[in-house]
Amino acid sequence: MATLELIQQQDLVSFEQAVWLEQCRQALVVIEGTGVPEEFPEEIGLVCVDDSVITQIHRDFMNDPTPTDVITFHHGEIIISAETAAREAAERRLTVEEELLRYAVHGLLHLAGYNDHEDGERKTMHARQEAIIAEVLRG
Long-range CB contacts (< 8 A, 24+ apart) of 92-99? Predict the structure, then answer.
């Protein structure tokens, strides 16, 4: 099983880090249980940043100068905007931890080979993502 590490690089948004990381580990167990590609990383870094940092990464690696929620690098780094998560959670009346979990699961699914470039792929990935989140939150 792959290992997950939280790398906290922001201080704008506070959240229950231990609880969230455990939820991410549970999601990883579910994802790995259905099979992952051979190139699935053994170590995965969940890097929480603010909007300014993710905007710079988005610009540098995807030529898009706007903030985004999550960026996944196939070597095992998942960059997550905690600032975007807090904003989205407030709008959707969710906890920050649940929205952060959504971004982590999205990144983990990309590492497992899911894509969201085309409409059909996006729907499949979204359904899988939400099913995993529901399973983890049910406990």
Answer: 95/15, 96/13, 96/15, 97/15, 97/16, 97/19, 97/20, 97/23, 98/133, 98/137
